[in-house]
Amino acid sequence: MDEQACWVALSLVNQPFDLRALLRRYGRVGTLFENVDAREEIGRPLAGDPRTALEAAAGILRICGELGVQVWSYDSPCYPARLRSIARPPPVLYAVGRREPLDRPAVALVGSRRCSAYGTWAARTLGRALSATGVCVVSGMAFGVDAEAHGGALPGPGGASAVRGAGPGLA
Q1: How many other β-carbons are positioned within 10 Å of the β-carbon of residue 60?
Q2: 67, 78, 88, 160: which is deepest, by most CB within 10 A?
Q3: How many Cβ atoms sit within 10 Å of the Cβ of residue 76?
Q4: pLDDT at position 171, please?
């Protein structure tokens, strides 16, 4: 069974589950798809036949390959250690660009999508200033404050990281 497809399929489950507990109990992620009890523990989307979820995952991996999007599963050395330590880490991250900024101190700058001229200026200025000190600016890449903060941070040594709630083309 394709482990990467299993990770992506697991990321499609739209309900909370304890990833670390499941991995401790069942071992590798592929076992979660081979074991009926594990699938039922994860929830309804996988409780029956997991082929639909795995086919969707294969399609996502194909699109990621075509677009040059990296797929970092929870067990990947690329997966950020700080994110791995949160209560409910996402099973998969989709990435474009450099990974190094994720290891730096980070600040999230988020706000209104329809910000004022002052909000636009403030977000870009804060992003630029934080990045100049080596801090990675994290945004959701929404319009408005997020995009301005991200744009301000990109040229600096701290860089910027965009975190989206779903894979490429899904958020």
Answers
A1: 24
A2: 160
A3: 15
A4: 47
